[in-house]
């Protein structure tokens, strides 16, 4: 008789999907490999085997999976500021449902890792707007700061959802005003700009 806790037929995608579900329920730091293995009905060793590593590998896969859901396609004629505003709104909509993920994206951006496809699209928008070789560095800064704002709101458990929405709107407005101020400085030749 076969043992249903053996990993026959189990895929990496199923494991990541279970971990994403647990992240929505418990936050990124609220689950273990054992909890994920229970969700997919296998022994923890089978999860480790399918991932090629432990919890850190699964956390990276979960963060990448959730970040990939922030799918804002640039519209023709949309300026970079409007794109960043809309990216922030979409990011808030996705990341507020997955506590802890925004912090990981911010930390990764600080280390030079742009989440995809969000990062590539932002770089393209910034390049088209004239940021040139600074587009990637600027994209890293934008994603890092937006995610730090969201991560800060993750740390406010028990706050009324409407109050969180107002806080996020105020944070986003403050960030965009800061970009406008920095953009003014960047426009003057020889002065430091958004990425200096």
From TrEMBL:
Signal sequence extent: none
Superkingdom classification of source: Bacteria
Keyword DNA-binding: yes
UniProt keyword list: DNA-binding
Domain HTH tetR-type: residue ranges: 9-69
Transmembrane domains' residue ranges: none
Xref: PROSITE patterns: HTH_TETR_2
Known DNA-binding region: 32-51
InterPro entries in alphabetical order: Homeodomain-like_sf, HTH_TetR, Tet_transcr_reg_TetR-rel_C_sf
Protein's name in the database: AcrR family transcriptional regulator
């Amino acid at each position: 008789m076969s043992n249903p806790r053996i990993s026959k037929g189990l895929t990496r995608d199923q494991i990541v999907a279970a971990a994403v579900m647990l992240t929505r329920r418990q936050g990124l730091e609220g689950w273990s490999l054992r909890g994920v293995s229970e969700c997919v009905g296998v022994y923890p060793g089978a999860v480790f085997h399918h991932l090629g590593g432990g919890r850190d590998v699964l956390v990276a896969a979960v963060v990448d999976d959730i970040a990939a859901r922030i799918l804002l396609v640039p519209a023709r004629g949309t300026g970079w500021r409007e794109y960043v505003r809309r990216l922030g709104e979409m990011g808030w909509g996705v990341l507020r449902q997955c506590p802890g993920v925004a912090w990981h994206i911010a930390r990764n951006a600080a280390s030079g890792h742009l989440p995809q496809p969000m990062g590539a699209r932002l770089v393209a928008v910034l390049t088209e707007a004239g940021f040139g070789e600074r587009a990637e560095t600027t994209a890293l800064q934008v994603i890092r700061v937006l995610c730090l704002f969201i991560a800060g709101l993750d740390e406010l458990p028990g706050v009324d959802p409407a109050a969180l929405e107002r806080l996020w709107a105020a944070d986003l407005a403050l960030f965009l005003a800061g970009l406008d101020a920095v953009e003014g400085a960047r426009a003057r030749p020889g002065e430091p700009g958004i990425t200096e």
